[in-house]
């Protein structure tokens, strides 16, 4: 059975907290202290050391230390500091989001307006992906930490990519909107990069902690099975291994009226939201001229056709016709 992504991310954050806790304790207790230090001064000093510890692995250490120190209020709780590092990144993305709205109102060039609208959408995704890391904090198999770390890096990389893609959308635009957006995203991109750097150092930190061998072993579920990656569950591996003629679809799409729907979008409209079970759409032969809309909450959708040369889907969208590159995908969300 596939492990829910939320549980994996939550577990990886627990692991991250445990590691940072160990590092924080080591660094905090290294500093000298005097009997004349007041309690409040000692707490602030300890908090400062904890912030420095968590920022040690980052690429933008000054940004990391200054941003966390402003909001940490002297806390030495590594769990709160890790959480705060994500919240600070999200807050800066929200500030960039607000700036994009201001720039959009002032933009006269249609391409610039579209680029700014795309930025707002992408920044919403970035915030969602960072927030997901803390939505679930339960049930984590510590013997499978490597997979959890990889998953967390994937989420953070996606958040970073969304911000870069935002800036890519300003190609061939006029005015200073691109420069304004880059300035607005500078801090959030640095903070997201910092979070990714912390996760990237987990292997080194785990080595320093000298965890028992049980934490290092790879489970069978981590290994690719029959050329499928580990995150593809047994049910989906079985479905994907079958020839199309043996797959029992949930709905059938056919242009000749022999199916349940004549368009793929109509079929996807009846798909269950956030389902843990696969929803199979069989698309019969034909050329489907539509941009297929796949919402972010449409999970475990499987499309099966009659072959690459017989079942074709084309949205016919391109940059030359005035459509931003982000929105030219034949398969995408409502705006991208």
TrEMBL record:
<keyword id="KW-0812">Transmembrane</keyword>
<dbReference type="InterPro" id="IPR035513">
    <property type="entry name" value="Invertase/methylesterase_inhib"/>
</dbReference>
<keyword id="KW-1133">Transmembrane helix</keyword>
<keyword id="KW-0063">Aspartyl esterase</keyword>
<dbReference type="InterPro" id="IPR000070">
    <property type="entry name" value="Pectinesterase_cat"/>
</dbReference>
<feature type="transmembrane region" description="Helical">
    <location>
        <begin position="6"/>
        <end position="27"/>
    </location>
</feature>
<keyword id="KW-0964">Secreted</keyword>
<keyword id="KW-0472">Membrane</keyword>
<dbReference type="InterPro" id="IPR006501">
    <property type="entry name" value="Pectinesterase_inhib_dom"/>
</dbReference>
<dbReference type="GO" id="GO:0030599">
    <property type="term" value="F:pectinesterase activity"/>
</dbReference>
<comment type="pathway">
    <text>Glycan metabolism; pectin degradation; 2-dehydro-3-deoxy-D-gluconate from pectin: step 1/5.</text>
</comment>
<protein>
    <recommendedName>
        <fullName>Pectinesterase</fullName>
        <ecNumber>3.1.1.11</ecNumber>
    </recommendedName>
</protein>
<keyword id="KW-0134">Cell wall</keyword>
<dbReference type="Pfam" id="PF04043">
    <property type="entry name" value="PMEI"/>
</dbReference>
<comment type="similarity">
    <text>In the C-terminal section; belongs to the pectinesterase family.</text>
</comment>
<keyword id="KW-0378">Hydrolase</keyword>
<dbReference type="InterPro" id="IPR011050">
    <property type="entry name" value="Pectin_lyase_fold/virulence"/>
</dbReference>
<dbReference type="InterPro" id="IPR018040">
    <property type="entry name" value="Pectinesterase_Tyr_AS"/>
</dbReference>
<dbReference type="GO" id="GO:0004857">
    <property type="term" value="F:enzyme inhibitor activity"/>
</dbReference>
<comment type="similarity">
    <text>In the N-terminal section; belongs to the PMEI family.</text>
</comment>
<keyword id="KW-0961">Cell wall biogenesis/degradation</keyword>
<feature type="domain" description="Pectinesterase inhibitor">
    <location>
        <begin position="46"/>
        <end position="198"/>
    </location>
</feature>
<dbReference type="GO" id="GO:0042545">
    <property type="term" value="P:cell wall modification"/>
</dbReference>
<comment type="function">
    <text>Acts in the modification of cell walls via demethylesterification of cell wall pectin.</text>
</comment>
<dbReference type="Pfam" id="PF01095">
    <property type="entry name" value="Pectinesterase"/>
</dbReference>
<dbReference type="InterPro" id="IPR012334">
    <property type="entry name" value="Pectin_lyas_fold"/>
</dbReference>
<dbReference type="GO" id="GO:0045490">
    <property type="term" value="P:pectin catabolic process"/>
</dbReference>
């Amino acid at each position: 059975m596939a492990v829910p992504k939320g549980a994996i991310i939550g577990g990886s954050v627990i692991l991250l907290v445990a590691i940072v806790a160990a590092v924080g304790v080591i660094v905090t207790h290294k500093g000298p202290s005097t009997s004349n230090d007041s309690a409040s001064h000692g707490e602030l000093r300890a908090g400062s050391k904890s912030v420095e510890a968590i920022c040690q692995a980052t690429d933008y250490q000054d940004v990391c230390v200054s941003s966390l120190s402003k909001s940490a209020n002297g806390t030495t709780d590594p769990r709160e500091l890790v959480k705060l590092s994500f919240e600070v990144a999200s807050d800066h993305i929200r500030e960039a989001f607000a700036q994009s709205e201001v720039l959009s109102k002032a933009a006269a060039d249609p391409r610039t307006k579209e680029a700014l609208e795309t930025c707002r959408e992408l920044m919403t995704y970035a915030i969602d992906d960072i927030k997901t890391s803390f939505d679930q904090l339960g049930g984590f198999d510590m013997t499978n930490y490597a997979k959890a770390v990889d998953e967390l890096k994937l989420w953070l990389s996606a958040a970073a990519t969304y911000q870069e893609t935002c800036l890519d959308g300003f190609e061939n635009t006029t005015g200073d909107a691109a420069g304004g957006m880059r300035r607005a995203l500078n801090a959030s991109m640095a903070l997201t990069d910092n979070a990714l750097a912390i996760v990237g150092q987990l292997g080194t930190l785990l080595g320093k902690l000298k965890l028992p061998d049980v934490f290092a072993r790879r489970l069978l579920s981590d290994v690719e099975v029959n050329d499928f990656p580990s995150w593809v569950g047994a049910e989906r591996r079985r479905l994907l291994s079958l020839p199309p003629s043996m797959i029992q679809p949930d709905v059938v799409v056919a242009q000749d009226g022999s199916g349940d729907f004549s368009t793929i979008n109509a079929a996807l409209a009846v798909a269950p939201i956030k389902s843990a079970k696969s929803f199979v759409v069989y698309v019969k032969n034909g050329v489907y001229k539509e941009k297929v809309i796949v919402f972010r909450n449409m999970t475990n959708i499987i499309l099966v056709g009659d072959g690459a040369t017989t079942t074709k889907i084309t949205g016919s969208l391109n940059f030359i016709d005035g459509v931003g590159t982000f929105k030219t995908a034949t398969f995408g969300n409502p705006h991208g």
